[in-house]
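Work Package 3 (structural annotation) set out to generate three-dimensional models for the target panel prioritized at the project kickoff. During this period the team completed the workflow that converts sequence records into discrete structure tokens, so that structures can be stored uniformly alongside our sequence database. As a representative example, we reproduce one entry of 593 residues exactly as it appears in the project archive.
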Amino acid sequence: MILFPQPRSIVLSEGVFVLPVKDEYNDLAAFFRMVREGEPRIAVIREDALEKEEYRLLVNERGVELRASTDEGLFRAVTSLRQMLLRTGGRLPYARIEDKPELPRRGYMLDISRGRMPRVGTIKAMIDFLAALKYNEFQLYMEGDCFKYAAYPKETADFDCLTPGDIRELAAYCRERFIDLVPNQNSFGHMYTWLRKPEFRHLGLYGADEVPSTLNPLLPESFEFVCNLYASLLPHFSSEYVNIGLDEAYGLGKYQIEEYCRQKGKDVVFMEWLNKLSAHIRENYGKKVMFWADMIYNYPQSYRMVPKDAVALEWGYELIQSQRMTAHCIAYRDAGVRYYVCPSTNTHGSFAGRMDVTTFNIRTCAELASAYGAEGLLLTDWGDGGHPQSWVWSMNPIALAGQYAWNTGAPQDGESFKADFIRNAEAFVDEFAFGGAPLSRLLYRMANYYLLEPERVHVCTMCAKELTLPLNVTRYAHLFDMKDSGDDFYFDNVTAYVRRVAADIERLSFDELYRREIRLTAQMIELGSEVCKVKLHPEKSVREAGGLADMIDRILPEYADLWRRRNYEKGVERFSGYLLARRDELRALGGEG
């Protein structure tokens, strides 16, 4: 593999041109500036007939020639050249490459609102990773408690988080790498962070004893509140887009607006809110909106009410959801609705991801996008449950999605699972992040630990989910009950399997911080597996309970230390709070309470 993502066309021939590698080449943006301003033996030719990101790269006995019509196209060419230089040590094989992206927009979205808030330096490292994979869009998902909103300063006065200056710095950093930093502020459902505060609760839809998570769209104060969020956030972004969320607005059609929705229709009420927000943003900020489309899946008549410049975000992360996307994509296309497809890293709710599901999900979304005219692919990376998973587990899904968004390749033939894409993505991550250590294949294996669990669970695993639920709670929604999950056999296999993979990982030489994060993940999976056994038979687990409580006491300080190395302090308490609760329950079970 000479290039990743795999280009559209590459023809190699006999011969090698030597171009000594310089230290400056390690910084992609700096290397681009050097080439654009004139680097000996690298000729740059403007060719207006090429598309915006299309490029030609030629290596022969005369040197290196790059052709592009725009700086953005030249940047993609330089990205490829830099990768070739670093991989070959400057001994470039003679080659002719003709390349351009499959999809116009190739994005990654990171949740920074439900626990883990990366610091600016951490985010810049992520941006560098995305740039090397030819991504051109990046979104930071926000609900609340993650940004210094000028309209509500007291809400974040007591802790550090991203500031307006940070956003402007990150936007500039993205622009240097031809990545569009798109604001992403939820503004209908998923508003729990705000609505749990007494001064905002009245803006929600709720029953007498409930904490609301959905805004009441009929209240003028709700619209004013959302507009204040936009006024605090949007001026610091240069993107022409803003993702306004609107997913999983579970209060719609209930509580205070039940009768209104019955008369007008839930879909109409949703579309009224979408259009109201879209008009406000267009008129005040000159931006176009993106929105999650799950609230209109079952209302195809609503597609005609989508604002003409809005982008629907078609998401689904499970096998069945991936299969259902075909009908949705066809409907968007036929209705003239602009849309993206949105697969997932699947790291939320599982600690390590579920890589067999993830590879299927990403491939299916990309092939549908190519077949039915999607404008982009947005890979989502969520933080449900306090965001306990570290970013090391997202890198391989990001690399694979980068390949599919740039070059989807031939449609799946029913046999190969496009294994070359998966293996090449792993090789890229090993090279980029792990000093060449063959680590990614082992991460893939560890991430599939859930296949040994007795039940399949929607977008999570049993071991991860059970750590967030009290010991006396055995049922999770309608999906499973630990009492019906067989015996210790299954979870003993999980523990043994994860220990074996972890031992194989420990033999490799790579970055120590990544090693600690992976080791901690293995320990949390093992802890979750053992807690599942306690739930199966608490009366038989009295002697083991104290040892598991001790295990949590060993995990907690390492969890906190690793968190602080890359992230703001705020948020660490969310998942560690679950661990503390399980520890205290285990102490009580063992007679120590």
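Residues 242 and 370 are 23 Å apart (CA to CA).
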